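user: can you give me the structure for this one chain? tokens are fine.
assistant: on it. calling the predictor now.
[tool input]
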Amino acid sequence: MAEPVNRALPTAHAALARLRRGECSSEELVRDVLGRIRATDGGIGAYLWVDEEDALGQARAADARRAAGNEGRLLGVPVAVKDVLNVRGQPCTCASRILRGYVAPYDATAVARLRAEGAVFAGRTNMDEFAMGSTTENSAVQVTRNPRDPERVPGGSSGGAAACVAAGEAVVALGTDTGGSIRQPAAFCGCVGLKPSYGRVSRYGLTAFASSLDQIGTLSADVRDAALMLQVMAGADCMDSTCLDAPVPDYGAALRDDLRGMKLGIPREYFVGGLAPEVETPVRAAIEQCRALGAEVAELSLPHTEYAIATYYVIAAAEASANLARFDGVRYGRRARAESDPMTMYCRTRAEGFGAEVKRRVILGTYVLSSGYYDAYYLTAQRVRTLIRRDFEKAFAHCDALLAPVAPSLPWRLGEAADDPLKMYLGDIYTVTANLAGICGMSVPCGSSADGLPVGLQILGPALGEEKVLRVGHAYEASASRPAAGP
């Protein structure tokens, strides 16, 4: 069994500084990443696909570009990509048998913007199939292990992306967050996970799970890297009608080492029964640290939180059933063995191509959208979603950001949640609300349990309030990394 792995690579901003000073080349940096993958990924399983020659070719092109004086904000930095985002010329299987053999013919907008700034795409990371799950055990390809304890899950659905950053197998990674799929694995693996507001980053080129909830974000070693990546990806996109045409602020300028003048709220409903003491203790300590940094901290209420899980799983499943209808064996991906009857081929293709968790959610979604149940379930869930969003609007009228746990427990042992789907669903209680409301959120490491397992502090901000979230995260991160003052 593999031993716990700790990150060894530089952050993106540190790597860029070294590249600009000529202390290393992009090719050398990429070779370090590839060597790390070869040395450690056999015991972790973070990657589904790596093309070393292609990555080195991209690195050499970045070095040539720098030599010609053509800089880019991510020039020469290796980026891992969750296997749900299209990267031209690379497979995009969503960790599913039904898309085996599919190669993306185009770049997602977020990928295209990173490519324009010189990013090097190192490989594809594992995930729960079609992003449906919280452990990365629902992948149809392989299980990913937590680098901090290989007997535990890395979280999901962006578990591969979080694991590769935590293990030093990538400098930064792209993930997606539909109900906590960036923030929860970031908390479980001990890295920073940023979920932007709905509409802040274009979803064009993202294979949709639930279109009104999905958002592309980042996994990184620190908050400054998260700000850098968001700066490049954010902004309007004519290819995505849900992408907002709103000004993109200078996120780097928002990073300060104190919280003076900020008001932070603590939702009572996030500190109730079911929250493990080994999670609550470091989160409470982080809240007190934010108070010490100059923030005004006060409790408040998000009264409709108790309905969030039921609301989320009705809406997400309904949208999943509609989005996954396109995977039918006709145009691309897996097709069942030749059948004379098209309907038999269609049914067999989906039965053989989808895993158990995907089938469960598609069946649930089809049910809640069916005649006689649409009003009782789907429309009711949409009404409750509005109430949840209003809870946040009222809260943010009195504070700049909210502080809370990311997950109610430490990382589960392998198989523990996979054998109990309800336990896995309930583990999303603190994260799904941000997706339902369309607001931004981030997980920042805030300590460890007695066994050395990471715990994450969740920072939630209003829609398009990433500057506030990043400021709080950076100030806390900087204070937590500073040595304690002497007597």
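assistant: here you go. The chain has 15 helices and eleven strands. The chain has two domains: 12-298+401-480, 305-392.
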